Request: fold
Amino acid sequence: MKVVAFIGPSGTGKSHRATWVAGERSIDYIIDDGLLIKGTTIIGGNSAKKEGTRVASVKRALFINNSHAEKVRSVISTHKPESILILGTSDKMVEQIAKNLSLPEISEKVYIVDVASEFEIKQALTTRKSQGKHVIPVPTFEIKKEFSGYFLDPLQIFKRRGKASYQLVGEKSVVRPTFSYLGQYTISDYTIYQIVEYVTSNTVGVSKISRFRLENFPDGIYIEIDLVLVYGYVIKTLLQGTQQKIKNTIENLTSLNIRSLNLTAKSLVVNNK
Reply:
């Protein structure tokens, strides 16, 4: 297995360029901030950016926790990649990651100054300092459940093909870690209620919502809904279908992770007129 390292100080744009660096070397696997990524899919690990403190984040990125490291080692053993790209802030960091994951010695080191201009690096550092944004080299939909309740938006990466012509290289995810001084990105309970109301009002067999309760926790949101149904429909089938529609709509519109969604039929009406 060939191991390549991509090195640069925090906030200089490594994750932003990781896919390009890997692609230039025909590398399909990337290790970044505690995650093992294949192509555009997270296949192992837990994101360091989800940790509550900077110290915990560093430990997670270094795979110091043996349980975390063992799970990723197991995935690597199963996939048997020909090459892996490790991202880190220093030579020492990437070497420690390779050691903790029982990988071969690093055969090539690429530095951020090799692939980004001084202006681009300064621009990336400014964005990190002023907005607290971090980039993970996977599409937003792949990690939205990892960051329920926190700032999350897609970043599309384009490659210049000629004058005024660009090719879409891929999409990466921008997150604000939980330890950021800039705080959390939140969505009001009433907004969630409005989404649920929209779904139920357009569902044949559901008359109205009689009770709505939502609790927000770091791992996601918990929702309980009491519904008034229209007589004449199979209750279990109707509730299951409505539950799935509500879940899909909330996750697609907000990127919030629904940990629990309980629907209860509280009463029936003869018709919905």
In short: The chain has nine helices and twelve strands. Confidence is low (pLDDT under 50) at residues 139-161, 163-185. Residues 2-175 form one domain.
